[in-house]
Design goal:
It is built from 7 helices and 26 strands. The chain is mainly β. The chain has a 26-stranded antiparallel beta sheet that branches. The longest helix is centred in the N-terminal third of the chain and has 15 residues. The chain is globular and about 90 Å long.
């Protein structure tokens, strides 16, 4: 099953956790729920319906979805809509919701995935009026488990355990009426944990993955368009779906562990707090996040050390890319931020036991933006599963807004801007890059003195720097201006090097 199919499954589960527009009568609430589920491509089967005294009871409800490479069935079970007498409607759902996904790979291999969503003692109260409904929700626990995977290429005795839980989710969801319904949500989640374990059926090893987040606050705004789970991301945008949201969290951690014939391996990572954000609209997909006070520890039999330990004051990244093909250039971007990277003294001691190199925290910052013309829907399953697919567009512009690397007493900074000529089928760049290196010769001298770099290699490096750089203001400072011309020539500080 592809990643896109898994994301579609998650989207449907989120749909039932945050239901659609309802009037303040139980019958109208149920009618609107049916309309919304069917608008998302659901084929509903209902065991029975009854209405009496302001209470609507639905039994045996199942939502079936057709996917491009298979199908999905969600056994929602029983739902009771009850008018509370004060203008609101309460909704009670089954504590357990089985989900089944069947898919066929491009090679014709069939697979089936089943799991169960559990939400005991959930509370959902709908209030407001016809123009804007408010859903106040309390979920003491939402969990997913009982995972099974079957298929012709999957061993029948594959031991794979999944346990996912969210505890104490509280918040509200509002939705306004209209041709396209706008919505907002605000919620807090006490904790989120996931534990996955597996074993090699032939007894060659086992592995596990644990993940946890605590103290989460989530806000989201968007528009519910005419979409269904079989659509690609591009088709969803064209159908009117929009979403923008932010999640802040407290302590976070994950652990990856494996044990096999070559020995054991473990990686543990943590952060004191962080922020995640995302936007999904006609301008494309944009997401990213930051973590504060991160730490990573790697250990295992394949590492010639007891452990490798790293710390970072701040880490994060951003990614922006267009979604909807068109004739005009669209924006894309990439950002990387690793600030205050500290390496364990034990690692420093392996190659610098006398402390000749400065051990100040390192930093890497990259900020790239650009424009490209998107010609294909790269989010469609057909494109993702085509091994011979050509690039989905052309590169038009790239700007390096910021480049910063500080390491062992040296600092490299830079920026630049380039345009691309695509007339011959491959992008030919033209533009200028500006670079500045401070402390580079001093670092090279120290590496030579330590015996880590042979003198003849250092001499070659200095000769190369002489071709591309010139002295700048200040001690041990080199600057370089690299210019690429439309005719394919390259100049370094005004001197042609190609």
């Amino acid at each position: 099953m592809t990643i896109s199919r898994a994301l579609s499954t998650a989207s449907v589960l989120a749909l039932f956790a945050s239901p659609a527009l309802a009037e303040l009568e139980a019958n109208q609430v149920w009618a609107d729920w049916k309309d919304m589920m069917e608008s998302y491509g659901a084929d509903l089967t209902i065991g029975s319906e009854s209405s009496s005294g302001g209470i609507v009871t639905v039994s045996g409800l199942t939502a079936n979805f057709e996917l491009p490479d298979g199908s999905m069935s969600i056994s929602i079970g029983d739902i009771v809509f009850t008018e509370t007498g004060d203008g609101a409607v309460s909704v009670a759902m089954s504590d357990s919701i089985p989900v089944e996904v069947e898919a066929t790979s491009p090679e014709g291999e069939d697979a089936k995935v089943t799991l169960t969503v559990v939400q005991p003692d959930a509370s959902l109260i709908i209030s407001g009026d016809a123009s804007e409904m408010r859903y106040d929700m309390v979920y003491p626990m939402i969990s997913m488990g009982d995972l099974t995977i079957e298929g012709s290429e999957i061993p029948e005795d594959l031991p794979l355990n999944l346990d996912f839980q969210m505890l104490n989710t509280e918040g509200f969801f509002t939705i306004t009426d209209g041709d396209l319904r706008n919505y907002t949500s605000d919620a807090t989640i006490a904790s989120m944990t996931m534990n996955m374990e597996f074993e090699d059926p032939e007894g060659n090893g086992n592995g596990s993955f644990q993940f946890s987040l605590a103290d989460m606050t989530q806000t989201t705004t968007g528009t519910l368009g005419e979409v269904n789970v079989a659509m690609s991301a591009s088709e969803m945008v064209q159908g009117g779906f929009r979403q923008e949201g932010t999640l802040t969290h407290g302590p976070a951690s994950y652990t990856i562990a494996a044990d096999g014939p070559d020995g054991a391996f473990q990686m543990v990572a943590s952060a004191a707090s962080g922020t995640l954000f995302g936007t999904f609209n006609e301008s494309g997909l944009s997401y990213g996040g930051t973590n504060q006070s991160s730490a990573i520890s790697i250990s295992g039999d394949m590492i010639p050390l007891p452990s490798v330990n790293l710390k970072m004051a701040e880490s994060g990244g951003t990614l922006k890319m267009p979604l909807v093909p068109g004739e005009d250039p669209q924006n894309f971007g990439l950002g990387i931020n690793l600030t205050g990277l500290e390496i364990d003294d034990m690692i420093w001691g392996l190659f610098d036991p006398t402390g000749q190199l400065p051990r100040d925290p390192a930093t890497l910052i990259i900020d790239i933006a650009g424009k490209g013309i998107l010609t294909e829907d790269y989010t469609s399953p057909e494109f993702a599963e085509n091994p011979n697919a050509a690039p989905p567009g052309t590169l038009e512009e790239v700007s390096v807004n910021n480049l910063l690397l500080t390491l062992a007493g040296a600092e490299l900074t830079g920026d630049g801007a380039f345009t691309f000529d695509n007339s011959i089928g491959i992008p030919i760049p033209s533009g200028v890059a500006n670079l500045k290196l401070v402390g580079g010769n001093g670092l090279l001298d120290t590496l030579v003195a330590m015996g880590l770099v042979p003198e003849e290699q250092a001499m070659g490096a200095r000769m190369m720097l002489g071709l591309f750089a010139r002295p700048g203001d200040g001690a041990d400072t080199l600057i370089s201006t690299i210019e690429m011309k439309e005719d394919g020539s390259i100049l370094a500080n005004g001197q042609r090097i190609r």
